[in-house]
């Protein structure tokens, strides 16, 4: 049965070629001081930085910068950013980059005026913000996380070997996001396909849970089919605008809360993937790619009907003459084939992990209860071992 829910997504999107002009509508709504947040410099090489700065100047903004946000942003960087944002008296945080930059901007938003240690408050105790927030806007340059239209902010604490996401409420969602698919054309292939798998994983985490018949799962199936097709086209021709724009739009819908409405969700792949990330600092989407098939093959018997439905509705497996288990397994085999053709990382060794990290990764894995099987520590260890 479709459960009760309240749905609100307050992020305004500007999508398509030339979408950056949307900034001219949005910037006048905020005070003069803008903290421009970005990563390691890709936006300077591909010209996006110059375009953004030109519009900020046209809108008579005072620009303060917080550069060098690393993939998988850290607690140390967050502390540094809080100081910069305070000195700038920032009225708006403008994130220009991928999920790491957007997540970091949201974490800054809730941390700058927080009187406690933000890591303890938001990532260990999972409390909601009680301080004054700084509004966030995003210009997205890397597709995958859905951070452009959600309240997620994942932060890594290397000292504690933990990578944790807090999903904040609608007051922390970006006020606006600019999505121009052409801004993603300069992404290295590795990042493009990692992002594609991140999208697939978001959809599957929400799909593989529950046994009821609900509309959210049908929406997820449609998004998965679009993603699978567009990914194949983009892998052949990365500058195919139609495919890249479809992938960008799918990413947003995969994790802007819609497909989770009225149903339970799993998220165990992300918990194992984040544990791998905490120990290796590997690219998020690739950590998910390396652990997904061992995880899904492990839980398949507990969610057989849904895995069968996935095979038939998403991968067009013909069920005739096959047992339910054979159909379900054929779906995962089709997924594996698609993953290999995209060039995804299929094991943890390629991500720099070694077997002596397994115990630590098991300890860093949070156990979720919404999937088809609540894992024991031993099962997490088995799945990680099979991922090598
Ligand atoms: O730092 P720069 O130089 O910009 O380079 C980045 C980075 O090295 C590069 N890049 C981005 N746009 C580019 C580009 N290079 C060339 N051209 C462009 N147009 O790509 C690299 C990866 O960027 P990053 O932002 O780290 O990737 P992604 O978007 O995958 O974000 C990953 C982070 O998001 C979190 C992950 O855990 C990870 O920390 N997640 C956030 C979620 C959310 N908010 O809901 C959910 C996700 O499951 C995920 O956990
Ligand atoms: Zn993800």
TrEMBL record:
An example Gene Ontology CC term for this record: cytosol
Domain of life where this protein originates: Bacteria
A GO term, aspect molecular function: methylglyoxal reductase (NADPH) (acetol producing) activity
Keywords from the UniProt entry: Oxidoreductase
Domain Fe-containing alcohol dehydrogenase-like C-terminal: 193-387
PROSITE patterns xrefs: ADH_IRON_1
The Alcohol dehydrogenase iron-type/glycerol dehydrogenase GldA domain, residue ranges: 10-181
Annotated Pfam families: ADH_Fe_C, Fe-ADH
InterPro entries from the UniProt entry: ADH_Fe/GldA, ADH_Fe_C, ADH_Fe_CS, BDH-like
Name this polypeptide is given: Iron-containing alcohol dehydrogenase
Originating organism: Candidatus Borkfalkia excrementavium
């Amino acid at each position: 049965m479709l459960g009760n829910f309240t749905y609100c997504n307050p992020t305004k999107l500007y999508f398509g070629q030339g979408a950056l002009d949307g900034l001219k509508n949005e910037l006048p709504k905020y005070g003069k001081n803008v903290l421009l947040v970005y990563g390691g410099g890709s936006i300077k090489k591909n010209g996006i930085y110059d375009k953004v700065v030109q519009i900020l100047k046209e809108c008579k903004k005072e620009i303060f910068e917080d550069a060098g946000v690393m993939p998988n942003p850290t607690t140390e960087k967050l502390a540094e950013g809080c100081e910069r944002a305070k000195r700038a008296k920032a009225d708006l945080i403008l994130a220009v980059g991928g999920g790491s930059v957007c997540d970091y901007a949201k974490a800054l938003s809730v941390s700058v005026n927080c009187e406690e240690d933000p890591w303890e408050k938001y990532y260990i105790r999972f409390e909601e913000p009680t301080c004054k927030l700084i509004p966030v806007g995003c210009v997205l340059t890397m597709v995958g996380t859905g951070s452009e239209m959600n309240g997620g902010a994942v932060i890594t604490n290397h000292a504690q070997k933990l990578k944790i996401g807090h999903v904040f409420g609608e007051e922390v969602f970006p006020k606006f996001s600019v999505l121009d698919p052409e801004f993603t054309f300069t992404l290295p292939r590795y990042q493009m396909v990692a992002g594609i798998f991140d999208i697939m994983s978001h959809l599957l985490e929400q799909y593989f849970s529950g046994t009821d018949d609900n509309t959210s799962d049908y929406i997820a199936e449609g998004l998965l089919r679009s993603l699978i097709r567009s990914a194949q086209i983009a892998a052949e021709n990365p500058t195919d605008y139609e495919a890249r724009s479809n992938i960008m739009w799918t990413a947003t819908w995969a994790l802007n809360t819609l497909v989770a409405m009225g149903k339970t969700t799993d998220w165990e792949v992300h918990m194992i993937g984040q544990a791998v990330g905490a120990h290796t600092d590997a690219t998020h989407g690739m950590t998910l790619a390396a652990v997904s098939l061992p995880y899904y093959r492990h839980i398949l018997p507990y969610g057989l009907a849904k895995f069968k439905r996935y095979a038939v509705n998403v991968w067009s497996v013909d069920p005739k003459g096959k047992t339910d288990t054979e159909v379900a397994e054929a779906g995962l085999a089709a997924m594996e084939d698609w993953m290999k053709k995209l060039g995804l990382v299929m094991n943890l060794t390629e991500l720099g992990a070694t077997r002596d990290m397994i115990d630590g990764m098991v300890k860093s894995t949070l156990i979720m209860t919404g999937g088809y099987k609540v894992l024991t520590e031993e099962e997490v260890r088995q799945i990680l071992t099979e991922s090598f």
